[in-house]
Amino acid sequence: MSDAHITQDTEGEHDNAYAGLLGNDAHWAFGTDFEDPLAGVDTTIPDGVDASELAQYCLMLGDDALVYAQRLSEWTSRAPDLEEDIAIANIALDLVGQARLLLARAAAADPALVPSLPEGSPVPDEDRLAYFRDAGAFRNVRLAEQPNGDFAELIARLLVMSTWRLAIFQRLVDHQDAVVAAIAAKGVKELAYHRDFAGRWFVTLARGTGESHRRLTDAMRTVWPLIPELTASTETESRVGVDPATLADEIGVVLDQVLAVAGITAPETPGLAGVRGRTGRHGMHSEALSRLLAEMQVVARAHPMGRW
Amino acid sequence: MTTLETTAVQRARAIASEVTDPELPMLTLADLGVLRDVAVEDDGTIVVAITPTYSGCPAMATMRDDLVHRLTGAGFESVRVRVQLSPPWTTDWITDDGRKALADNGISPPGVAPRGPVMLSLTPTRRAIQCPQCGSGDTEVTSEFGSTACKALYRCRACGDPFDHIKEH
Ligand SMILES: [Zn+2]
């Protein structure tokens, strides 16, 4: 990694293959780089909305997307065939995009949330939030961070995650904060494709071979215990966003519909308990998140000043 | 707005409209519907508004850079590109010229984007799509997720060729 390209930009322009790609500024070496995803967007906090609470809420929804996208991207080159590999990568990309916008929104609403880096660091706010927070500062639900299983586990989890997130985003399109509302309006269209993809594969696996049916049943026993956490109310969500408890019926209806077509029944498993009542939304995570973050963050943390 | 400013905006808009999409180079940003506005500020700065196609669209940065380069190259000293998130982009904004350019380049243009409540669909999406190679209507979807976020992958049963379809969005 060298800063040489930056200083030579003017005189050495023709020797630098990347010169033509650069706008007015150099790019941070890692993460989403480029420019503020909310460039020119009015991020004024609307009347009656608490800025720090709005930021916390955006962090929750952003972390769900970021952590789950990281899990999905671990599937790259490992899916059963090329079409599915590309589909999973596309879904992960949509979620990274949602995460980036939501983390940028969180940072704009409450700059105090953003980890500080050495003076002159080019790392943008949303990347500081993604790469420079420890597990305890993440607010994603625990379903997002679970280690990957087989393809059936991928499908069962994607069905639940996309059904739940779509229900949230559909309610956020009318949010008082125009930025959140716009992010949700775009996300709804993306999540609808994710849910259909998962639902179709869910039915295919359930009605496929004895082996695919058995694997799907096993996967549901892993995923279903994490559903109650998705519809548990927290003060922040209830006050500034969508109260998760109000989603339970709709999620139940959609999942029942898929299960009915698939001809499979939901497992009778108790929900995964929190630790002294604390779950992912409170920063209480499984060990799996620390390992996921270690891999995702290691390069960025080693080069907080890196440019290319 | 003064006559001079009006002229500047018109010229800037004409230039911005000619910039092409990095992933679908047969389309201009105007044809794709992502170019939302071109305006001039009091100090002469040209402000171009673009909207993302998908939340994670990696082409946004290239679009921004291309716009800045083309406009500064045409003599505009100060150019800024801003993001416009609302209303969200829809494939319905792809112009008729854009649809023709897609088809001419072997890409099936999108149908009308769905509106209203989001329905769960557990069977493959049905679209009446003609093969852009041979014109046959005997086509089948291979995957709802293609080589970029905005495409589905199709196959023509008549000529056997695979092709891309821009998903309704
Ligand atoms: Zn054909």
UniProtKB/TrEMBL annotation, chain A:
Signal peptide: none annotated. GO terms for cellular component: cytosol. GO terms for biological process: phenylacetate catabolic process. Gene3D superfamilies: 1.20.1260.10. It comes from the Bacteria. This is Phenylacetic acid degradation protein PaaC/phenylacetate-CoA oxygenase, PaaI subunit.
